Amino acid sequence: MTDLVTRFAPSPTGHLHLGHAHSALFGWTAAQRGGGRFLLRIEDIDPNRCRPAFERDLIEDLAWLGLSWGDPGGDPGDAPGGGPVRRQSDHFDDYRAALARLREAGVVYPCFCTRKDIAAEIGRAGAAPHGPDGPLYPGTCRHLSEDIRAARIAAGETWAMRLDVAEAMRRTGPLRWHDRGRGWQTATPEQLGDVVLARKDTPTSYHLSVTLDDHLQRVTLVTRGEDLFFATHTHRLLQALLGFEPPDYHHHGLLRNAAGERLAKRDRAQSLRSLRAEGAEPAAVRALAGFPD
Ligand code: GLU
Q1: What is each CA distance from 170 to 230, 238, 241, 277, 283, in whole angstroms?
Q2: CATH 3.90.800.10 placement within the chain
Q3: Shortest CA distance to 13 belongs to which of 38, 62, 60, 46?
Q4: What stretch(es) of the chain map to CATH 3.40.50.620?
Q5: 116: annotated active-site residue
Q6: Which of 85, 210, 250, 251 gets mutated to test ligand 1 (max ligand atoms within 8 A of its CB)?
Q7: Which of 94, 121, 187, 271 lies at 20 to 30 Å from 51 by C-alpha?
Q8: Would you put residue 238 in left (φ > 0), alpha (ψ -120 to 50) or beta?
Q9: Which member of 87, 149, 265, 276 is catalytic?
Q10: What is the largest CA-CA distance in the chain?
Q11: What would the pLDDT profile of 139-178 be if each residue is shown by its tens digit?
């Protein structure tokens, strides 16, 4: 039997709120119940938005909440505090190596488009295909010749690397993945289109680094919010291209505020920091986050 490993993977772009606490406790509880391990990973690939101070604060908030990570279980009352953490910005070489494999396989291409270029192309196309997160990349750079690519690179243009989803799907054939809440899914990565795998400003992207890290850290059950459900179709394709065994998934519902809106980092009133400052106890905050003791 495979040992159960779950994880919580926040980005240090602000303070954690009750929605994050729900997500962290969801993964932590699954590990506890299954006699498995719970990991914490810091997803700090975005140099413009991530701050070391937010990382420090979120680790402190999670420990205060009663979570421990990197060790076999632990009790919320008895074992507050940390454990080893994987910080993505320490591992850019791993992502570069994975991208090189995808480049050799011929399933990625350089994209020179700016946001403005993409918006203009979508405007010209009239009825541009839309995915769950908005309009899809219209494919402007997908079929540029090697000569044109080389000339634009030599001329100093900056580029991102995109996944050629249609080509990749031709290589892998049909794929499936399993969600513990919603059952077996046929992978439809075309819904997010040719996603960026390495950005102009950082040598990876969310999709590439999360897929690689869940594999390297031997995560067996990925728990995360249902806002990332469609991303999993793309991750399943990357797993097949890179030869990774897919983990199991459990996408959970998102906590909402009284007005029914998703909690966001900007809703400061719901941050764990502000609840702590008001004198809330960890058990009360766990209950507010949907996990009463
Ligand atoms: N880092 C992502 C976020 O902050 C979550 C990634 C995941 O759980 O796959 O939303």
Answers
A1: 20, 13, 11, 54, 50
A2: 94-199
A3: 46
A4: 5-90+255-288
A5: no
A6: 210
A7: 94
A8: alpha
A9: 265
A10: 64
A11: 999 999 999 999 999 999 999 999 999 999 999 999 999 9
pLDDT tens for residues 276-292?
Answer: 999 999 999 999 999 99
Residue appearing with tokens 């074992």 = 79
Would you identify the CATH topology of the domain 94-199?
Glutamyl-tRNA Synthetase; domain 3 (3.90.800)
CATH number 1.10.760.10 is the correct assignment for the domain at 5-90+255-288: no
Q: Which of ligand 1's atoms lies nearest the C-alpha of 10?
A: 4
Asked if pLDDT for residue 75 goes beyond 50, the answer is no
Q: For residue 284, give the amino acid letter.
A: A
Ligand 1, atom nearest to 214 Cα: 9
What would the 3-class secondary structure string for the chain be? CCCCEEEECCCCCCCCEHHHHHHHHHHHHHHHHCCCEEEEEECCCCCCCCCHHHHHHHHHHHHHHCCCCCCCCCCCCCCCCCCCEEEHHHCHHHHHHHHHHHHHCCCEEEECCCHHHHHHHHHHHCCCCEECCEECCCCCCCCCCHHHHHHHHHCCCCCEEEECHHHHHHHHCCCEEEECCCEEEECCHHHCCCCEEECCCCCCCHHHHHHHHHHHCCCCEEEEEHHHHHHHHHHHHHHHHHCCCCCEEEEECCCECCCCCECCCCCHHHEHHHHHHCCCCHHHHHHHCCCCC
Q: Is the pTM of this model over 0.90?
A: yes
Distance CA 56, CA 84 (A): 13
pLDDT (average), residues 8-37: 95
Residue 76 Cα to ligand 1 middle (Å)? 23
Which atom from ligand 1 is nearest to the alpha carbon of 210?
A: 9
